[in-house]
Design brief:
Strand content of chain A: 15-25%
Order of helices and strands of chain B: HHHHHHHEHHHH
Helix content of chain B: 55-70%
Largest interface: A-B, 60 and 54 residues
Shape of chain A: globular
Mean pLDDT of chain B: 94
Oligomer: heterodimer
Radius of gyration of chain A: 22 Å
Largest sheet of chain A: 3 strands, mixed
Radius of gyration of chain B: 21 Å
Order of helices and strands of chain A: EHEEEEHEEHEEHHEHEH
Mean pLDDT of chain A: 94
Low-confidence stretches of chain B: none
Number of strands of chain A: 11
Structural class of chain A: alpha+beta
Helix content of chain A: 10-25%
Low-confidence stretches of chain A: none
Largest sheet of chain B: none
Chain lengths: ~230, ~300
């Protein structure tokens, strides 16, 4: 089993709800608390497992804003685990989840250096490395209803841009979606074989505008007057 | 990448310490130049002990949770950091046994001590190589993921080591000019390795913002990194030295670490007991510190692609 996330760059609206839900759940989860530094001050910062970046792809007018959530990709070839000298970083054999044992970590930062995706963040308060657990303390919890046994970020996403499942199984919902939508890995050239997959934005035909009524002379004068008055 | 003072001190000091004692053992084993006196060997041993120990202690200063440092000996098979720690610790008993032999031998080191010395030599070599491999094994930083990185760590260690050794006891040796030839060769080797390295890393290569985001057929630029005031990632990996500064510091590396020590070999040949070798050794150590600072400062981690960098 290779548990992971599929992130749809077509529907992600960049609202940061996944990151907020993640922080809320995991602050009291297995690797919590997630320290904040100067939270109400001028320069707030802190530990997050999930961060959303915003990119512009293409040149105007063929350009597009792409919101880009990133958390641990739970790589098959997880170098962060290989370089760890203490054995605190592990990749679970049964489901491929990469975890940090908070009782063993010595805070040397080497795993964060080895991670190309910025998934690991040092908690200055505890002095240990913290990262996405894929909500390992949720997804197997039989006290929860079955539909609730998913990572907090997936449940929170209002755009259904996040899917959770077994990416080793090609017939699973996530496996089929990745195949149908042409899902891809980030920085495949580094050979980390990340489990999490990203779905590209759908290519949609441009909406035709040439059949719209042309503005009349009166409209043009009105528009021009408005501009002048505004000045 | 943000250069950490503790790691610079660690790699420069322990590198020089290992280089110093390894060369002292080599001279003692083969009686090169008639061998050093017992006093010089003991001084080299104490000097190496101080340099290596100060270095190793400094290396623990960058740990955020040092109480778990003992666990770093447990992943010897997979982690180069673990290998480095294990080799460095096993080195000590053999190193101290060798020094004991020098102390008790009264001028002629006994065979058992030389045997311990040979083992200490190999372990020192492995420690230095492992230090280099900690960096060279990281595919995320192309300036480090380079075969010349471990070679450089070894070359700089031997170069600073030989200069310190000669500063302590060049006067002991016969055929001073031939001995200085060895120092000149080690300086030249280290300089060539470093020059080649700077040439190799000068051109952008590896992942770009396009492969990082998967959009490989369009221009991609960041609109917003998604955080207001920096994160662990920007703090750890965001530092980029001004281009003018790196050029100036590279000049400083070549002057302090290689050119000045090399120039000092001539006055040292005239008067082996004079301070010329000390000038060379101190200058080389200062140059090595600048070289190590640049090694960290010039490293561009691929995570910067998610914070706006176009290439690494």
């Amino acid at each position: 089993m290779k548990l992971g996330l599929v992130i749809d760059l077509d529907t992600c609206v960049g609202c940061h709800a996944c990151a907020t839900a993640c922080k809320e759940w995991n602050a009291s989860g297995v690797t919590g608390p997630l320290s904040d530094y100067d939270p109400y001050g001028a320069e707030p910062s802190g530990v997050w497992f999930n961060r959303i970046r915003h990119f512009e792809v293409g040149e105007y007018p063929e350009n597009k804003t792409v919101n880009f959530p990133m958390s641990c990709l739970h790589c098959e070839n997880a170098e962060c685990v290989t370089v760890c000298p203490t054995g605190a970083s592990i990749k679970r054999e049964e489901d491929g989840i990469v975890l940090v044992d908070q009782d063993k970590c010595m805070g040397c930062n080497l795993c964060a250096w080895a991670c190309p995706y910025g998934a690991r963040e040092l908690d200055e308060t505890s002095g240990t490395m913290k990262k996405c657990t894929l909500c390992v303390d949720r997804i197997y919890d039989e006290e929860l209803e079955e539909r609730e046994r998913q990572p907090a970020c997936v449940l929170a996403c209002p755009a259904h841009a996040r899917m959770f499942g077994d990416l080793e199984d090609a017939e699973s919902a996530v496996g089929e979606t990745v195949r149908a939508r042409g899902g891809f890995s980030l920085m495949p050239e580094l050979g980390y074989e990340p489990t999490n997959q990203y779905l590209p934005p759908r290519s949609s035909r441009p909406i035709p505008t040439d059949d719209l009524p042309k503005p009349s002379t009166r409209d043009k004068v009105k528009e021009w007057t408005n501009k002048v008055v505004n000045r | 990448m943000k250069p950490a003072f503790s790691v610079i001190l660690f790699t420069v000091a322990s590198g020089a310490g290992f280089g110093l004692i390894m060369l002292a053992i080599l001279f003692d084993l083969f009686g090169l130049g008639g061998g050093f006196t017992r006093e010089t060997l003991l001084q080299a041993g104490v000097g190496a002990f101080v340099l290596i120990t100060v270095g190793l202690l400094a290396s623990t200063a960058h740990l955020a949770n040092p109480k778990n440092a003992w666990r770093s000996f447990t992943r010897f098979k997979t982690s180069w950091l673990s290998k480095e720690g294990v080799f460095a610790v096993i080195f000590y008993p053999f190193f101290l046994l060798y020094l004991l032999g020098v102390y008790l031998g009264g001028g002629a080191t006994p065979g058992w001590a030389l045997a311990a010395g040979v083992i200490a030599f190999v372990l020192g070599l492995l420690t230095l190589f492992s230090t280099g491999m900690i960096y060279a094994s990281l595919k995320t930083i192309r300036q480090w993921s380079n075969p010349l990185v471990p070679v450089n760590y070894l070359a700089m260690g031997f170069m600073t080591g030989v200069l310190l050794l000669y500063a302590l006891g060049l006067g002991d040796l016969a055929g001073v000019e031939g001995q200085l030839g060895l120092a000149a060769a080690l300086i030249a080797l280290a300089a060539i390795v470093k020059a080649t390295y700077y040439f190799w890393i000068a051109r952008p290569a590896g992942p770009t913002i396009n492969t990082a985001t998967g959009f490989t057929r369009a221009r991609v630029r960041i609109l917003d990194p998604g955080h207001g005031h920096g994160t662990f990632l920007t703090h750890e990996f965001g530092y980029q030295p001004p281009a003018g500064l790196t050029v100036a510091l590279k000049v400083a590396v070549f002057v302090l670490a290689y050119a000045l020590p090399l120039a000092m070999l001539w006055p040292a040949a005239e008067a082996p007991g004079s301070g010329a070798m000390w000038v060379a050794a101190v200058s080389a150590l200062a140059g090595a510190a600048v070289e190590r600072w640049l090694f960290f400062a010039e490293a561009r981690h691929v995570v910067n692609l998610y914070h706006g960098a176009q290439t690494t």
